[in-house]
Design a protein that fits this description.
The complex is a heterodimer of chains A (119) and B (113).
Chain A: E1 5-7, E2 10-13, E3 19-24, E4 31-37, E5 44-50, E6 53-57, E7 65-68, E8 75-79, E9 88-95, E10 109-110, E11 114-118
Parallel strand pairs in A: 2-11
Antiparallel strand pairs in A: 1-3, 3-8, 4-5, 4-9, 5-6, 7-8, 9-10, 9-11
Chain B: E1 3-5, E2 10-14, E3 19-21, E4 24-26, E5 32-38, E6 45-50, E7 56-58, E8 64-68, E9 73-78, E10 87-94, E11 102-103, E12 107-112
Classes of the chains: A mainly beta (119), B mainly beta (113).
Amino acid sequence: DTGVSQNPRHKITKRGQNVTFRCDPISEHNRLYWYRQTLGQGPEFLTYFQNEAQLEKSRLLSDRFSAERPKGSFSTLEIQRTEQGDSAMYLCASSLGQGLAGGSYNEQFFGPGTRLTVL
Amino acid sequence: AQSVTQPDIHITVSEGASLELRCNYSYGATPYLFWYVQSPGQGLQLLLKYFSGDTLVQGIKGFEAEFKRSQSSFNLRKPSVHWSDAAEYFCAVAPGTASKLTFGTGTRLQVTL
């Protein structure tokens, strides 16, 4: 399967612990996005990378959150000192970036998500 | 900033009946508009998109959507619903071709047999 993969699929942790999620995008995609989806809501944008550069961060991404994409391939999202309010589904998506396909839309392909539960 | 409103939280239709899911957006210019479907345990899947041109766009799985600039709407339709269409549907907007998406809160579709 060559789609976007995310690991782990589920994570249960205690409040105050640190957690790290991984996203492996489609191999030729240079853009990678992180979204968060809470119960009953649509996904909300957190941050995105073009290659290894983090180009935009949402106000939702507090200081306890950090994302990296060190070699422009996979990405990690770390949450430090987790809080119960961090419980959500964390979604990753990838796409070809602007400039690589002219003016056509570069569809974002989503992974299955990592469901985080903070007790 | 752009925003999306999906006024229907939950819709139930009988199998074989027609379906229309509503979506209204707020954006200064004509945005890029999308409909995604999310099934339990599955990632979001793109059903269709609108950028410009013909205001009636066709998507996968027999879905279509119509862009109405005067109403700031992009409603999703299907003439005959199948039980497998039961899922959560999200309307989304983006200002550019490779930009972040802003999603609505979703509409959960239940299909009765």
